[in-house]
């Protein structure tokens, strides 16, 4: 507060000097002419040009001598356009400027002015001034105090630019930024902003909560070095390069490793934000943590599959065996009637036929509910049987190829893969009008591969966004076994559906 008091005291001392001085011409140009040596005859022209230059500037230019009167102060004509006061009105009260500073900025301006008076440092500041009509004008002021050779203060000169429009734009941008920040800070989705090198620039609170990392810990680091599993990092970087080239908006899933070693499955939607004026582009990634949802879906699907197996087993072992017993008894009864040449023999024969048909239908139903038997060869056996049935029923060539045994001990995984192949074959016949279909099953120690190829018309849209319940179900089943589904056109005609899956989860 001592500096503020000193600054105000200097201002009032300056006012007393002006008020006690004799009247003068009122312009800096005229003062300089009267006080300057007359050796150079061209000085008046130079001063006139200098004054004309000042008065053409789109800013308020001012100069105040600290040891002379008001007659030798100067303010450019722009003061009237800016604040509604004429030069004469403004200069007749040397502390008017201070009086019209906005109350919220007055203390700060006093401190900055005091620092200029006491230390000689330039004053560079932005503050509000109240105009004659009550409008609030933002000025950016750059002022300096010039000292004489002996160190005594001589005069202050400076320039003030009206930045009201700029401030209004800044305030509007600040409002929008606060609005966006509020959304980012409160939304439950994960939002990550990356630069064009994949480094993290923004990391909202939902990301911090999910991963356990703060923004300070991750800012400036590449996202694939922090969270992605090694097997997913390469795929993510490839996707990032495609997105950075602005080829398409990407939807994908990735597993994030949290700070505490927990794996979270995140479903992402990413897009490219173009920079302005040649600046760098940014990638905006929005993610939803679907870990619990996937666990619940898997649990529901497991329960459904388990119930299907139970019903299929009951049909096979319960109703099937019961019908088999009835058929045997009916057959015995038929033989006895035939021995006695009874007329009821023909009816008994019909009963035996109907019961056998019921047994056949029961077995087919049981096989549909339980297509893969519970052993490591179950998938291979089920696909072999399925391709033979397709050939018999639909009259197309359908072959199963498996050069080396692919042993899948997990019945649930085998069942999902079987249904993927089944759906792909059905699509090939129904939509592609294929005549030749091949199901291939291969594997190495790390990954397995199920491929269904056909020579049909070829699928029209192979993108992941393509409609079709069958494709959605195939992709869902592939995700449930930890795999990925890919659909490709095969020139000159035909389609291949490929499901790659980890073999480590099949044991």
TrEMBL record:
Source domain of life: Bacteria
Domain called PAS: residue spans: 46-107, 176-241
Signal peptide annotation: none
Pfam families the UniProt entry points to: HATPase_c, HisKA_3, PAS_3, PAS_9
PROSITE patterns for this protein: HIS_KIN, PAC, PAS
Keyword ATP-binding: no
GO molecular function, one term: protein dimerization activity
Domain PAC: 123-175, 250-302
Domain (Histidine kinase): residue spans on this chain: 417-505
Keywords on record: Kinase, Transferase, Two-component regulatory system
InterPro entries: HATPase_C_sf, HATPase_dom, His_kinase_dom, PAC, PAS, PAS-assoc_C, PAS-like_dom_sf, PAS_fold_3
GO cellular component terms listed in the entry, alphabetical order: membrane
Ranges annotated as spanning the membrane: none
NCBIfam families: sensory_box (TIGR00229)
Name by which UniProt lists this protein: PAS domain S-box protein
